[in-house]
Amino acid sequence: MSKLTGKVAVVTGASKGIGAAIAKTLAANGAAVVVNYASSKAGADQVVEAITSAGGKAVAVQGDVSKSAEAKGIVDAAIAAYGRLDILVNNSGVYEFGPVETITEGQFHKMFDVNVLGLLLVTQAATAHLGEGGSIINIGSGVTAITPPQTAVYTATKGAVDTITGVLAKEFGPRKIRVNTVSPSLTETEGTHSAGMIASEFEAGIIAQTPLGRLGQPQDIADVVAFMASDDARWLTGERILAGGGLR
Questions:
Q1: What is the residue extent of each domain of the chain?
Q2: Which end of the chain has fewer CB atoms surrounding its CB within 10 Å, N or C?
């Protein structure tokens, strides 16, 4: 029996990249998965097709995590489709980089609304349905360990994710619900390609500092998340797992 058989998972921001790999991996381990997307319906549908064609269960659900009603709708869709919720992966995230002189109010609020408020709103909606043995996995970032220049706002959002994880682990501990962060370092995705990070001096610098000597791949992160979602990680809560090949 697969280690997540009978479980139901919501993965936010799962239409591509790390989120898509997480959704597919949870499904491959037996979970029924809600594949959330904000705008890329085609991408989410492709993830669902990949899961169902492999014999898994998945549905695509649109929703902007930074809007309270839509965040609740994502969770409600899981209950409507599968009748329960066991795993929440708060993966939705946006990023923009630049020196402090270029930061705008709009940029600040966009990143905090999705990366921090969105996490809180979906978690808030999920708490009515998560029970003993439930697992919340927040996707952080290795940037909080290395604090690279020109990332002040993004790094601040991920620092908030780390501290929220610690708080919620204590809040939900009495209910036997675990809360952890998995923090990737630079990972090769559609997003990092389009942002110009891949095949750049930045990439070369990251690889040079990484003991295992390569970039992360989405599957590297997804496998760690699947472990954290399972009962194999039953004694872990409030933890921050750096999934970055040793970069810190």
A1: 8-242
A2: N
Q: Which of 37, 82, 95, 154 is catalytic?
A: 154
Model pLDDT for residues 39-87, shown as the tens digit of each residue: 999 999 999 999 999 999 999 999 999 999 999 999 999 999 999 999 9
- Per CATH, the number for 8-242 is 3.40.50.720
Dihedrals phi, psi of 87, to nearest 5 degrees: -135, 130
Q: Which residues of 228-244 are buried (b: 16+ CB within 10 A; e: fewer)?
A: bbbeebeeebbbbbbbb
| Whether residue 1 has pLDDT greater than 80 | no
Q: Catalytic annotation on 154?
A: yes
Confidence of residue 202 (pLDDT cuts 50, 70, 90): confident
- Alpha-carbon Rg for the chain in angstroms: 17
Instruction: Give the whole-angstrom CA distance, residue 238 versus residue 248.
Output: 19
